Amino acid sequence: MNLLEFSFLSGVLTATAPVLLAALGGLICQVAGVFNIALEGQLLWGAFTAVVVSDLTGSAWAGVLGAVAATVLFSGLLSAASVAWRADPIVVAVGVTLLALGLTAFLMRQIFGSGGTYTSPDLAGLPTLAELGLDVPVLGPLVPLAAVLVAATAWRLGRTRSGLRVRGVGQHREAAEAAGLRAGAYRHGVVLVAGALCGLAGAQLALGNVTLFSECMSAGRGWIAVVAVMLSGVLPGRLLPACLLFGVAEAVGFRLQGAGLPQQAADAAPYVITLVALVLAAVAARRRAPEKGST
Amino acid sequence: MELAAELVGVTKRFGPVLANDGVDLAVARGEVHAVVGENGAGKSTLMSVLYGLHRPDSGHVLRAGQRIRLRSPADAIRHGLGMVHQRFRLFPDLTVAENVVIGAEPVTAGRLDRAAAHRAVTDLSDRYGLRADPSARVGTLPVGVRQRVEILRALHRRAEVLILDEPTAVLTPGEADRLFEVLRTVAATGVAILLVTHKLTEVLAASDRVTVLRQGRVTGRFTTAGTDADELVHAMIGRSLTPPAPRRLARPDGAPALGVQDLTVRDGDDVPRLTAVSFAVRPGEIVGIAGVAGSGQRELIDAVTGLRPPGESGRILLDGLPVRQGRDPRVAYVPEDRHGRATAPELSLAEDLLMGAQHRLARGRFGLPSAAVRARARDLSERFAISAASVDIPISALSGGNAQKAVLARELTRESRVIVVEEPSQGVDVGVRERVHALLIEARDRGTAVLLQSSELAELRELADRILVLFEGRLVAEFTPDATEARLGQAMTGVLP
Q1: Average pLDDT of the residues in A69-73
Q2: Which of A181, B197, B242, B441 could bridge A176 with an S-S bond, Cβ 3.0-4.6 Å?
Q3: Where are chain B's structural domains?
Q4: Which residues of B touch A182 (CB under 8 A)?
Q5: 3-state SS class at B283
Q6: Where does the protein principally reside (chain A) (predicted)?
Q7: What angle do CA B384, B386, B387 make, to 5 degrees?
């Protein structure tokens, strides 16, 4: 295998990881019956806090942990609004996402003294696996972790007690309560876990894919994750194709930019390709399983 | 007699409504204790208090003599209470075993022990005769089996007090008998059973003691062996039922008002729901439709009322002319789904009563004098004994019985040649039921053709002049009203007499 092909492959996987982690967060919320479409905001907040902590401490790992902790806290707002106060999920998502956009832009000016894009020699990016002594060039450690987490989530949801309860709470809240389960607690729990996953996703985006923060850098990946969740049939394994597709499209766009494609077109390409492909997949799936209705 | 649970002086208000007023109720270990009363008598509220779903305004709960605090069903389950809800609280996409063990799951080495869960279900099934396949998905099961899953769950949680809220509402007569056998077996192990119902035949057949509620208060306590239906009815409604007038046979005459010819209906998956159904209803007779749920009643009634096209074959004729699509005005219709199909929930009582009769009150093109609309509504309320605070309250605020009377008032005053009635006394109490029956007989005697669908065989036998049985979408038998419930039941389940 020549280096070019391998670097393309690792580019695909690296671009896939943040979307996959965020989608996994969205998926567990969906399983528990919380319609979480605020992933974009959670992801952006994760990216920002990862950069802030890494910049302050000089440690990328501290940045990762900081992003996880900060995004769990931030998600407390989401869980209070959507679970405790039962606010409309779309209103909550728009609110949380706009808040993340505005707050990161504001805090960026407060902390780093300027808007736009921030990077600095003090800002520590995540090492690659090669730097960690493994014989895999280029890939960062959170990329294989994302794949492991998908498998672990599938196992947890399908095979354990807490997984059964989360599924039960998602299917029928009243039934869960009648069975003596504290449905609200499980729902708060999954929103916070989704926060942790989006923290990881943000850290991978800002310290793994690149080593910088720029305003609005999540750039719709959270929305792609939402679409991936909706098309996955709420099965963790099925998140992979949709997220990989996005990864491929982004890596291809990046290549084409190198080959002279205008930057704007290269930036837009992954979203256009992913959405078109996902919509086609959804239409095909609906054709296969025609809607059942009696009247 | 060892008391398993006691409710002491329970009072519960919902806004201005006093649902329970100082109710005392004690249930002993090993007994089946029936709790009866009309709709709105406070039975469900009382059971919800006992299961931790509602907190009483005053009063408290004793369990095995100890005062307990119930803030949620989780507390109730911890104290050995179990409940089978009227609307099942089950997870449709989980298996039977998962539904049974959820909340008290067997766990081995950090993972759910499916084998142990299956064993738990099989053991309980065998012990109490509650057949259910542990690996079946609950959403695919018939209602009778779903109910067993709810009972199994309570038994798995080692419930010592088992509450069943109107458990037979969804069962066929045969299934109900089997349920009572199971309850006997469970009670024999020392479990106290609270059976909430408004069907007196069940009370007399299945219980040891009875507590009667009326308007939130206890109006009678009996041992079942020492009481009878008359005494229970008196306690329930505060008067005796007028004995039914000797049955006057219908005198149908003339050509059929409603003719159904060779009707075949297929659903979206091309599965036949009705196959070559033909019958006629003449003016002045009541024809009953019997069948277990899902035998094609829905499709038949939708076709007859013009709500669905007759399908690829078959004709529906009203006085010899084809039925018009989309609710034919020549057919009056009293649907089962009272706050869905039968009424328009945003309308006031007066407006809902007007639907279909607006042209009678209209003055010119745009004039619909509201004074006349309301006067008409007040007049109908009086004639049909609808008790509502005012004709301006939303129809959705009426109780089940009053909503039913309102729908009947609206439909019977259409003076249609044909009236189609679904489950006319489902969820209404004995007093309303009596009234509804009288109205239907009256309409029949005026020469209306009545098509009556009911899952209650007693009702069909009381009202119908002929009973047609649907089984898997085919008309398989016709009976006179003196046919026994056993024979009807056999025809309904495909075991032809």
Answers
A1: 97
A2: A181
A3: 3-237, 249-330+416-497, 344-412
A4: 72, 74
A5: coil
A6: membrane
A7: 150
